[in-house]
Structures are given as structure tokens and as C-alpha cells.
Amino acid sequence: MADVARVAGVSPMTVSRAFKRDASVSDATRSAILEAADALGYVFDSTASNLRSQRTDFVAVTIPSINNANFADTVRGLSEGLKERGLQILLGYTDYDVREEERLVEQLLRRRPEAIVVTGGHHTPRTRRLLENSGIPVVETWDLPVAPVGHVVGFSNAAAVHAMVDHFVSLAITRIAFIGGDADRDTRGTDRRAGFISAMRAHGLDAGRLIAAGTPPISMKEGADAMGRLLDTMPDTQAVICVSDLSAFGALTECQRRGVSVPGQIAVAGFGNYEIAGICVPSLTTINPFPDEIGKRTASLILDVLDGKQTGSAAIAIKPVLIRRQSSP
Amino acid sequence: MADVARVAGVSPMTVSRAFKRDASVSDATRSAILEAADALGYVFDSTASNLRSQRTDFVAVTIPSINNANFADTVRGLSEGLKERGLQILLGYTDYDVREEERLVEQLLRRRPEAIVVTGGHHTPRTRRLLENSGIPVVETWDLPVAPVGHVVGFSNAAAVHAMVDHFVSLAITRIAFIGGDADRDTRGTDRRAGFISAMRAHGLDAGRLIAAGTPPISMKEGADAMGRLLDTMPDTQAVICVSDLSAFGALTECQRRGVSVPGQIAVAGFGNYEIAGICVPSLTTINPFPDEIGKRTASLILDVLDGKQTGSAAIAIKPVLIRRQSSP
DNA sequence: TACCCCATTGTTATCGATATCCAGGGGAAG
DNA sequence: CTTCCCCTGGATATCGATAACAATGGGGTA
Known about the structure:
The structure is a homodimer. By secondary structure, chain A is α/β, with parallel strands linked by helices. Chain A contains 13 helices and twelve strands. A six-stranded parallel sheet of chain A has the order 2-1-3-4-5-11, sandwiched between helices. Chain A binds a DNA duplex through helix 2 and helix 4.
């Protein structure tokens, strides 16, 4: 920067100002500086800026997996909402593991982000403490935690699946199964299964038709395997709710391979409203949790908090919508 | 850090060492320091460390879209390979736009990453200059550029599709169509279409059965629409190669909706070996470009370059594999 | 004409960890 | 017991941009 200043015939401070958006530098000076910078191949050094200004323009985000269209949509919504303010996302993957989340959160906080967004409301005690003491806005998403750390933008996974059970029961379908993962790693999956069980019990129905399909998050293949087992062991099942659209699609293909008619012989429902749910044949009944909306609302919440417009903890509830399609009557 | 030093009864320098992996600090001292740090709620400040040490432990990565399982797999492979060395990925999305890539690359370079990985070998002149002058290892992926900026880990998209055409021709299928995007934004898509055209011409066949399906990257829905148009306008087509598995699956569903038998009346092929290609009914013939392998090889290449083990520019060619499945004879 | 105000630019100290050089002490070898 | 070396820990200057405050100058207003 000193070199640029020399070439442009100004002080380093003025060069610094020329690289800011709103700084008071005359247009002539700024363009001379930018020209000099370009000629010298100078690239602004954020590391020094970050230290002195105590601002990084990072927003830290943890998601369970990069390879999941739902979370990707949330990140995209977030990213777009934050971009206009020059905020950049610092992304990390927890691999559906709260221990890994703890390591990740600590790593991310070391980078001094302006805010941190985590997926879910289940954390290790230490993660919770780190977040509470971070001194920056914390947003939990994709959940409605009972005791949130800070802000919340999400929905109740259990309630959403509860609504799906209600839907089937209202169609006089009572022998309903649930396909999910075999462990509690995926806390959203666990919440969804819990919602299934409580809903079935609330209707006085058998909540025992549970198929564990593998380590969460379960894949299309695992969904297909689970459907195979369901058809083998409980052939009188009338409907199956899957923990996600991906496993639901896998289940659907297994029916196709076996010549089992959907929804004639068995209805299939998913979760997430992935693109595939709307286009496969038959199309999948599912629940839309509005992942992009979660991202957008989180972004604008963060901006409000940073601007001081939002004081106190916000709890923004997104209302999932049940989408009836061809895979259910 | 000074506070931690005071509480632990050591100098700040020793605290600094205690937070490094290999630094020479006795176990007793280190644990006392970490205990003091924990009690005080101290979180290491990377911004200062980055400035002084001139190391950020960032590896910058640009991908066209976060919501794409292929690129996500590459990022995952990268991420895992780099994690063991404490390198963290700084991810950005170009939205399939070279202008956006330029902005992004400049933003990322300001953060002083240790290396930068870009998707594709097509860049604006300024992007190219920025990369060349960055002074850090540059890796272009998912392509085999004629004039690479630095290192390369990828494959020829054109050659891969060429092989698919050869495959169909060897089965005496000659009326072949291509479904892709309607613009040149997605350079890999454009390369694939070019590979289709050159292959058809090499066989002396009509390369005119091209369906433009929308703005790249094209979705399942757009693939379905394109298949509809193809069936309407060129019903004698024997096979269709789609720019990706997602559009291929959409095309497949359109056939199902119309009662067109696949592969009986028309064969369908995709690209990418997404999970869906292996499980849908009928399963999709496709090309596996080994996205995770690209990520892993890129990671180990970067580590070698940073260690000085790799001098000069590496060009690692990944060999895509054609996978025959039920959607083709 | 005199004065004030604001826009623009400059000066100095500083953000917090660490590279670098240095010192003390304990153990091994002779 | 001496010598040397290695291990551990300390002192100081520094990475590069910028917050905070100061200064300059030109235009508008009384």
C-alpha cells in the first residue's frame, strides 16, 4: 500500500480510503490510486485490515453437509442477503456430528466473524458456551430450540411430520410407517421420527412401524433398501413417511422395481421439497420447509442486529407447508 | 493472550506456542495454559496471527454453484484432504459467470489464501492476471485447459461426451440428440456440446439435433421440457445425450409421463454419475468424472506444492468412465 | 471582506500474535 | 566434575492497514 501511495503521490491513508466504499476521497484521487494499484499489481491485504479495524466481514456458517440441496439453498439465500453488505460466508461442515460441530465452531470463532449461523439447536455444552461467550450475534436455524442460544430462524421438525401423519389419518390411512436413519446423529431426522411417533400415539395408532435405514443422512439407496424391508416385513402398510425426499425417492424406485403401485398399494411421502419430488413419476407428496427463506430471513436478521435495529433475541418461525402430490391419494 | 499469560504465570510468547501444534512447550506448561485460557473464555485470534505470520491456512475455492452434488463432492474431497494439515476452505460461488468469478477471485485473494482452486479453465483476462500474479499455487479443475494458469486436475468434457457418442454409434444408433443449456455461461456444458458436435461430424452424422433447454445449469424440469420438445419435433431420434444427469432424469420422467419407453423407443444418457442415475428406474447410462477424486488429488497436489515436493506445473488427468445402465441398450 | 464550514488529505499510534534472537537449566558423555 | 547440547521459555520488534485526530483549502454566507 505504501508503494501505491508513492506512485499515486498520496499518503497511505488516502490509499486505504480509496479502497473503502463510502470513504471521503475525491473521484480524481481515487481513480489515480486504483490505476496505480492496478499497474503495480497490488492486491489489498485483508489480514491487516481485519486486525486493525477489528472487522472481518465474515459470517460463519455451519451446515451438516455440503452435499444437500436443502442446506445449500439456505446458504444461497444467506449468501445473497449478506453479499450486498460486503459480508462473506465462512462455511464449515459438521458431518452431522455435534463433536465435529464443537471443533468447527471454535475454529470459526478464531477467525473473528461478525456473526455465526448454526444449523440446529442441539449442541455440546462447550459449543453452547463458546457461542454464548462469542459476543457476536448467534442464529440457530432449521429448528425451534426450547432454549435457544441467541436468535432462531426455523421450524419444528416434529410438528411438520406430525402434520403429515394428521394428513394421512384424515384420509383414513392408519397403518403408517416411518423410514429414517438408525442413529441419533442427524438431530433433525431424530426430531422428525419423534414427531411421527407422538402423532401416531396421539391418534391412538401403532407407532411401531419404524425402519432404520443406515447412518444418517440416509441416501436414495438406503431409502430403497428400507422400502424393501418394509414391504417384506409389513406388507399391509398403507403409507410410509420418509425422513427426506431423497430416501422417499429411493423408496419409490424400489416400489417400481417390485411392481408395487404408488399410491395404489402404498402411499409415499418425503420431506424437504427437493426438486426431484416435484418431477419424479409419480411426484412425491412432501413438506416444504422453505430452505431459501430460512437463509434470506437469517441474512436480514443478521443485518438488523448488526445495525442495532434488532435488539433482544428474535425467534422467527417458518411455517412448513405440506404439498400433496401423486404419491399419496 | 496477555491475560492468559498472566493467569498461567508465563509470557505471552509461551501462550502463543501452547496454541501451536508442534511448538516446543512442555506438557505441563501447555495444559496449564490451556486451562487458564478455558477459564478466561479466551479464544485465539487468527486475524493477528495471520498478519504476523503471513499465513492464513486458507485455501480459496471457487465453484459455479453450491447446489450441485458434483462440485460438492469435489469440495468434500478437497476439504478432507486439507483438513489434516489444518487448512480451511474459503468457498465462493461464481454462479456460472466469468465476470462474477473475477470479482470473487479478487475478493478471495485479498484474504491471502495459501493456494487457490478454480473450477474450469475459462477466465476473463483480468482473472487470469490476478491468478498469475497471486504468488500462490493455482489449480484449475474440471477441465484440461490448453493454456493452464498453473496446475490442473481435471478431464476433457468434450472428449468424455465424444466417447458417449462413440458408444452409441458402436450400437448402430445414429440419430442422436443433445440437450443442453441455451447460453455459453456454463463452460463445461458448452465444452460437452462441442464434444457432441465434433463426434457426430467425425462419424459423418447429423450434429443438428440440439435442444437448448434454458439458462445453464439446466434443471430436471428444463430437461423434461427439452425432452418434450425433442419428442415433438424430432420423433425419430434414437438416443439423447443430456448435459447432466439431472436434466437426463428430467428427460426420463417426461418419457414416463408420455408413455415413451426408455430405452425401447429412445435411449437416454446423462453426465456426472449423480446418485440418482444409479437408482432411478430405468437407471441412467452416464459418465463418471470422479468428482471426489478431483478434490482429493487437488488436495494432495496442493500439499505437495506447499511442501516444495512438487516443483513446476502438474497436469493431472482424471479419466472419466462411461457407465452403461438400463436407459441405453 | 471576513469568517465559517465541510470536503479532502495527512500524521501517529495501534490492533494481537509471533519471528527471531537469546538465556537459563538439566541431562548425557567423557 | 566438566563440557556441551538440547529443551524450554522470555524479550523485542514487527506484520500492513486504519482509527482517531489534525490540518489544509476552497466556496458560500453575512
